[in-house]
Structures are given as structure tokens and as C-alpha cells.
Automatic annotation (TrEMBL), chain A:
<feature type="domain" description="Acyl-CoA oxidase/dehydrogenase middle">
    <location>
        <begin position="122"/>
        <end position="209"/>
    </location>
</feature>
<feature type="domain" description="Acyl-CoA dehydrogenase/oxidase C-terminal">
    <location>
        <begin position="229"/>
        <end position="375"/>
    </location>
</feature>
<dbReference type="Pfam" id="PF02770">
    <property type="entry name" value="Acyl-CoA_dh_M"/>
</dbReference>
<dbReference type="InterPro" id="IPR013786">
    <property type="entry name" value="AcylCoA_DH/ox_N"/>
</dbReference>
<dbReference type="InterPro" id="IPR009100">
    <property type="entry name" value="AcylCoA_DH/oxidase_NM_dom_sf"/>
</dbReference>
<keyword id="KW-0274">FAD</keyword>
<dbReference type="Pfam" id="PF00441">
    <property type="entry name" value="Acyl-CoA_dh_1"/>
</dbReference>
<comment type="similarity">
    <text>Belongs to the acyl-CoA dehydrogenase family.</text>
</comment>
<keyword id="KW-0560">Oxidoreductase</keyword>
<dbReference type="InterPro" id="IPR046373">
    <property type="entry name" value="Acyl-CoA_Oxase/DH_mid-dom_sf"/>
</dbReference>
<feature type="domain" description="Acyl-CoA dehydrogenase/oxidase N-terminal">
    <location>
        <begin position="6"/>
        <end position="118"/>
    </location>
</feature>
<protein>
    <submittedName>
        <fullName>Acyl-CoA dehydrogenase family protein</fullName>
    </submittedName>
</protein>
<dbReference type="InterPro" id="IPR036250">
    <property type="entry name" value="AcylCo_DH-like_C"/>
</dbReference>
<dbReference type="InterPro" id="IPR009075">
    <property type="entry name" value="AcylCo_DH/oxidase_C"/>
</dbReference>
<keyword id="KW-0285">Flavoprotein</keyword>
<dbReference type="Pfam" id="PF02771">
    <property type="entry name" value="Acyl-CoA_dh_N"/>
</dbReference>
<dbReference type="InterPro" id="IPR037069">
    <property type="entry name" value="AcylCoA_DH/ox_N_sf"/>
</dbReference>
Length: 380, 330
């Protein structure tokens, strides 16, 4: 197996890391968080210039033809700097639906805008009763002439407050938890009847509650097959898990580095606290957890194009390892920092919070373990 | 035992508890080391919660290594002049008084040059700066002392013997550190939340996986409660001892770990519904219906905030160190 990066991939990684080192220090991040939108439009334009926003799209559609490895490198670097911009929601989630579900006309219309930083996309999937079930969809899509009318409420829509487009899952037929009968719709956020209530999330990012009351959309808003949208959703969610895994690895490696720095510079009892064996061992456990997580983030990129059952199982395994590593690294980092680890003026606590939030997205450790446990079979 | 039952009941209700710095901390110190005048002056006001107290122990350079503290108190006539800084001072923004460990003899061995001083928070030269924690809360502060003049009558015990007070105080909060009542209440809360959240048409409280996890914590908590009761029974027989006791470390370790495990399971159960960081309408003084379910509001902030339980009052690493050295001869 070849784990080496190509020359182009290294260049992408280096130029993004350089941009973030120059422009996305902890103080600049906090300034962006305090701004009304909760992130920086200015750095978003720099992402566009660097090619991050058109990264995964086909060149024919106006993108740069990047694959899973490129996405992993970008997500990891964005995680290292604890960035707040809607790259994950617009490019990974929104982009995923466009790449796998959109017609050529839909892609031609939207991809150049996304790549240029002019259009933001959010994914409205979760509902009050659904929790992590992707097939549990109560939001309804009723036929209306050749178009549809959407009715329902979507919860915790990441970056839903600033999105220009919202990808909405809605039931076109069948009972609430049927796998069949789920449609995916690309809805302009400005559509009449679409209400968004935005708020900050506990990790300093943004989200919104989205209520759809008689929202009319045309036939051209459907992504893929309106009667069989679930495989499309699963495909995009798996790409999202791979990207979250890489972002988490970026967070974990930055937090581990921050902790090592603290162990070397904080003195108590007349020596650097890193000389105490109990802390040395714990730092080593963190490193093991980090490398295991990194391996799984790489594994995720390898499995994204595998057949559906293998791909789905692989992403469950990835999310379990990422969640476990993130918890261990986040909690150890805070503990070894002591009080400063939970002071808002210091970066460590913010990494800890982002890692905790990532575990709650698209299935936590327990959810994916349950999925994997169902696949364990007896051996004679 | 009565105090224990009283506190347990308050915690389980849950009802507001008297802030412990008075009744549980400086109060017992004054009873053990204070002059008659100090007892008459402070104890009735502590009992009545007329005075709010805070604790001036930790400093930026003296956390786990508390004895390395640097805040200086220099005797000038009938006053000590105090200069230095304390940190992680809980509720300093509300406190009327602070009990402080200060260095009175910089030449002596670390623990021998420390004194225990009571300082009126309204004394000129004291500045309080808030530290906001990652849950958004304001509990802790930095407290700066700039030529703060403290009457010598506010010295507790002998000069340079303040470490005796500190040791008694840190060992005293034994049964409280177990937080059994709080954890019982949080477990009940956890079951409530797990009864509200569903997935695949089934409440999480009906999931065998979640039930097993809850039962596991309940076993741990029952064992801790029995350990607390053993400690209480033993101290009744022996009278209040001034010696350190391994029990205080055991109760602090298990109490913090169990409480934290409940916050973790709460996060697991709430999942993505714990993400919104919504202002508390009660705090904001509005009665608008919330955007999210009320139960979702505090789960992540409490998970974040309660990481402090294994840090304050002597980190869990320090507790293990104390046990291995002082009680097992390692």
C-alpha cells in the first residue's frame, strides 16, 4: 500500500497550512466567531482562491477534480486550525449531493458558484424523532402539479443560517421509517415558507432550526430519484464521516502538540510536569490514540468507492475509532492542562469542545458500535 | 451524619446548597485554630450566610504544587501588607471575604513560611478579573492584591503555621467530595432525558445498551455511597480527627469520576440535540418558548464544566500520589 502523497497533494496541504498559519491564529479565529455570521467571509474568499471550494467537483462542472485524499488533507488542515467556515457543509455535504445526485444542468448551474465562494449549501436531514436514523423521515413532500410542496421541521441544520441552498430530505411515499419513498430536494433558502432560526452551537460553530411550511419547489429541485433517495443520502453521509474523521485528526494532532508544549514548559515541584511518569504515559496513550485515528481517516478515503455494504461498515468503524480517540485525547489534554484547559481564553478547551461535537454528528460511537455489533456473526 | 443527610436531601431535590466555603471550609478552620474573638466575629455570620467566602489558595505558578505559592504578606506594625495574585477563585465576584494562604517567611522551607489570613474583599488594592470557562460560565476569577493592608487580628493560627490549616481544610471536605446526592440527581435526570429521546421509534431508555450503562454507573454509585457511610460511622467513633485520611482521596477520586461518567453518558444519549448553545430564557428574563427542548440546554455545558471535578481541590493525579505515599508506603 502506498501512503505517500503526490507532489500536488503535498503542495495543496502546504499552501493551506501556510494560509491558516498566517491568517487563522487563535485570536483571529475568536474574532471570526464573534462576528455576526460566526465565521469569516474574507477567509472564505481565500479558500476559493486556493481552490478548496471547487476541490471535489469534476473539471467539466467547474471544479478541480480532487479525490478523497485531497478532501482528507483539506479537512485535516482545517481541523488543525479549528476553522469555523462552512467548508464541510457546503463542499462535502452540499458538494456530495451535487456530485452524486444532481443532473448535469443542476451541476452546471451551481458548482461554479460554489467554487467561486458565491453559494453556500446546508443539509437539512435530522428531525425531532429521527436522531441518527437516516430513513426516519417525517417531513413530507406532496406532489403539486409537476413540482412538490414540502412540509416539516428539520433540526440542528449545520450552517443552515447562512446557507443559500438547503438540501432537504422528505418523504414522498410510504411509512415514516421506510427505506423507500425518501426524496432529496435542493431548496433555495429564500423560498417562501422556509423559516430559519440560527444559533451558535456549543463548539462555537453555527446551526439553525429549519421549518418548512408549504414550501413549493419545481421538478428541477429534485436530486436523483425522488422515490429512492436514501442510497444517495447514505453515500453523502459516508463522505461526510470521512471528512469529519480527517478534521478530527487535525484537531487531535494540534491538541496533542499543544499538550506536549504545556508538559515541557509548565513547572511544578521544581521541574517540568512532563517529567512525571504518570503524565508521560498519558501523553503516550494520546499519541497511540492519535495514530489509530489517523490510520482510520486514511482507511476511510480508501473505502469510499467500495460497494455500499463494505463502505457503510467501514465508515461505522472509522467513526467508532475517531470518537474513542477524540474522547481520550480531549479529556487527557484538559486534565493535564488543569484549570487553563477549561478556560475560554486558551485554545485547548476549544479543541476539546469541537472533538466532543464531532462525535455527536452522523452517529456517535455507541450508534456505530451497535451497527457493527449487528454484523458480528457466529463462527462454528 | 446529620449534615450529610441534610446535604444529600438538598442535592437530590435538587435545591440550592449553601456555598461551602463558609460552613464547610473556613468555619471548621476557625473552630480548630481561630481565637475566641475570631470565632465570635465570624462564625455566627457564617452560620447565617451573612458573609460569602471565597478561597485564595491557587496561584498561576502554584497549582498542584500549592506550597510553592508566592503571594507575600509583610508585617508593618499592626497590619500585613499583601501583594500577589490568586487564581481559579470560585465566586470571588460575589464574596465578602477571602481566606488566603500567603507567604510570611520567604527564607523558610516552602511549607513552613506560609500563613492563613482572612481578608475583607472590599479592602483597597484588591482587583477581581473574571475567567470565563468553556461552558460560557463565570464561576472563577483571578484576584490581584496590590499593597492590601490586612489587620494582624485576621491571622488565623500562628504566623508561618498556615499550612496546618490548609492540610486540615483540604482533608476535611471528605464526604462532600463524593457528591453522592448530586450524582443520584443527575442519574435521575439522565433517565428522564433517555425517556425523551427516541431513535427508530424506540425510546433510548428502552435500549438494552443504554440500560446496561446506566445500571453500571448505579452500581459504582451505590458502592461509593456505602463507602461514604463507612467513613461517617468511623469518624463518629474516632471523633473528628485532624489527621489526613485515605478516605478523602478515595471519595474525591470516585466521586469525580462517577459524576463525569454521568455527564459523558448524558452527552451520548442527547447526541446531536445537545449541540445548540442557547441562552437560558430564565437568565435572560424572558418567557418565550425555547427553540429546543429544555432538557437539551445544559447537557454539553455541564459535560464541559465538570471536567473541573478531577482538577480542583487537588487533581486526581495528586490524590493518587497522596494515597501511594501517605497510606501505602510506596
Amino acid at each position: 500500500m502506498n501512503f505517500d502523497l503526490s507532489e500536488e497533494q503535498r503542495l495543496l496541504q502546504e499552501s493551506l497550512r501556510r494560509l491558516l498559519a498566517d491568517r487563522y491564529g487563535f485570536t483571529q479565529r475568536n474574532a471570526a466567531m464573534a462576528a455576526p455570521e460566526g465565521w469569516s467571509r474574507k477567509i472564505w474568499r481565500s479558500y476559493a482562491e486556493l481552490g478548496l471550494l471547487g476541490l471535489p467537483f469534476e473539471e467539466a462542472d467547474g471544479g478541480f477534480g480532487g479525490g478523497p485524499v485531497e478532501a482528507m488533507l483539506v479537512a485535516e488542515a482545517l481541523g488543525e486550525a479549528l476553522t469555523l467556515e462552512p467548508w464541510f457543509t457546503t463542499v462535502v455535504l452540499g458538494g456530495g449531493f451535487l456530485r452524486h445526485g444532481a443532473s448535469e444542468a443542476q451541476r452546471r448551474a451551481l458548482v461554479p458558484q460554489i467554487a467561486a465562494g458565491e453559494a453556500l449549501v446546508a443539509f437539512a436531514q435530522m428531525e425531532t424523532q429521527s436522531r441518527y436514523s437516516l430513513s426516519d423521515v417525517a417531513t413530507e413532500a406532496r406532489r403539486d402539479g409537476d413540482g412538490w410542496v414540502l412540509e416539516g421541521r428539520k433540526r440542528v441544520v449545520l450552517h443552515g443560517d447562512t446557507a443559500d441552498w438547503v438540501v432537504v430530505t422528505a418523504r414522498t411515499s410510504g411509512a415514516r421509517s421506510d427505506r423507500a419513498g425518501i426524496g432529496v430536494f435542493l431548496v433555495p433558502a429564500s423560498a417562501p415558507g422556509l423559516l430559519r432560526q440560527g444559533y451558535a452551537t456549543v463548539d462555537g460553530q453555527r446551526a439553525a432550526e429549519v421549518t418548512l411550511s408549504g414550501v413549493r419547489v419545481g421538478p428541477d429541485s429534485v436530486l436523483g430519484d425522488p422515490a429512492e433517495g436514501l442510497p444517495l443520502v447514505e453515500r453523502v453521509v459516508d463522505e461526510a464521516i470521512a471528512a469529519l474523521a480527517a478534521e478530527a485528526v487535525g484537531c487531535m494532532s494540534a491538541l496533542h502538540a499543544l499538550t506536549l508544549e504545556y508538559l515541557k514548559t509548565r513547572h511544578q515541584f521544581g521541574r517540568a510536569i512532563g517529567q512525571f511518569q504518570v503524565l508521560q504515559h498519558r501523553a503516550s496513550d494520546m499519541m497511540v490514540a492519535l495514530e489509530q485515528a489517523r490510520s482510520m481517516a486514511m482507511y476511510a478515503t480508501m473505502m469510499l468507492d467500495e460497494p455500499t455494504p463494505e463502505r457503510r461498515s467501514a465508515m461505522s468503524a472509522v467513526k467508532v475509532q475517531i470518537g474513542r480517540s477524540a474522547k481520550l485525547i480531549g479529556q487527557h489534554a484538559v486534565q493535564m492542562h488543569g484549570g487553563i484547559g477549561i478556560a475560554t481564553e486558551y485554545a485547548a478547551g476549544h479543541y476539546f469542545k469541537r472533538l466532543a461535537a464531532i462525535d455527536t454528528l452522523f452517529g456517535n460511537v455507541d450508534h456505530h458500535l451497535e451497527t457493527l455489533a449487528a454484523e458480528v456473526s457466529a463462527v462454528a | 451524619m446529620q449534615r450529610y443527610i441534610f446535604r444529600e436531601e438538598l442535592q437530590q431535590t435538587p435545591a440550592p446548597q449553601p456555598v461551602g466555603f463558609g460552613t464547610n471550609m473556613v468555619g471548621p478552620i476557625l473552630i480548630a485554630f481561630g481565637t475566641e474573638a475570631q470565632k465570635r466575629r465570624f462564625l455566627p455570620r457564617i452560620r447565617n450566610i451573612d458573609d460569602w467566602w471565597c478561597q485564595g489558595f491557587s496561584e498561576p505558578g502554584a497549582g498542584s504544587d500549592l506550597a510553592s505559592l508566592k503571594t507575600r504578606a509583610v508585617r508593618e506594625g499592626e497590619h500585613y501588607v499583601v501583594n500577589g495574585q490568586k487564581t481559579w477563585t470560585t465566586y470571588a465576584q460575589h464574596a465578602d471575604w477571602i481566606f488566603c494562604l500567603v507567604r510570611t517567611d520567604p527564607e523558610a522551607k516552602q511549607q513552613e513560611g506560609i500563613s492563613f489570613l482572612l481578608i475583607d474583599m472590599r479592602t483597597p488594592g484588591i482587583t477581581v478579573r473574571p475567567i470565563i470557562t468553556i461552558d460560557g460560565g463565570h464561576e472563577v476569577n483571578e484576584v490581584f492584591f496590590d499593597d492590601v493592608r490586612v489587620p494582624v487580628e485576621n491571622l488565623v493560627g500562628e504566623e508561618n503555621r498556615g499550612w496546618d490549616c490548609a492540610k486540615l481544610l483540604l482533608g476535611h471536605e471528605r464526604t462532600g467530595a463524593a457528591r453522592v446526592g448530586v450524582s443520584k440527581e443527575r442519574l435521575r435526570r439522565l433517565k428522564y432525558v433517555a425517556s425523551q429521546v427516541e431513535e427508530g421509534g424506540r425510546r433510548l431508555i428502552d435500549s438494552p445498551r443504554i440500560r446496561e450503562k446506566i445500571a453500571g454507573i448505579e452500581v459504582e454509585l451505590k458502592a461509593l455511597e456505602m463507602t461514604v457511610l463507612r467513613v461517617l460511622a468511623a469518624s463518629k467513633r474516632a471523633g473528628e480527627s485532624r489527621n489526613a485520611d485515605p478516605a478523602s482521596s478515595i471519595l474525591k477520586l470516585r466521586g469525580s469520576e462517577i459524576a463525569q461518567s454521568i455527564t459523558e453518558l448524558m452527552m451520548e444519549v442527547a447526541g446531536p440535540y445537545a449541540l445548540p448553545a442557547l441562552a437560558d430564557p430564565e437568565m435572560d428574563g424572558t418567557n418565550e418558548p425555547g427553540l429546543m427542548e429544555d432538557w437539551a440546554r445544559t447537557i454539553a455545558p455541564v459535560y464541559f464544566n465538570w471536567r473541573k471535578l478531577s482538577i480542583f481541590g487537588g487533581t486526581n493525579e495528586i490524590q493518587r500520589q497522596i494515597m501511594s505515599k501517605a497510606f501505602m508506603g510506596l
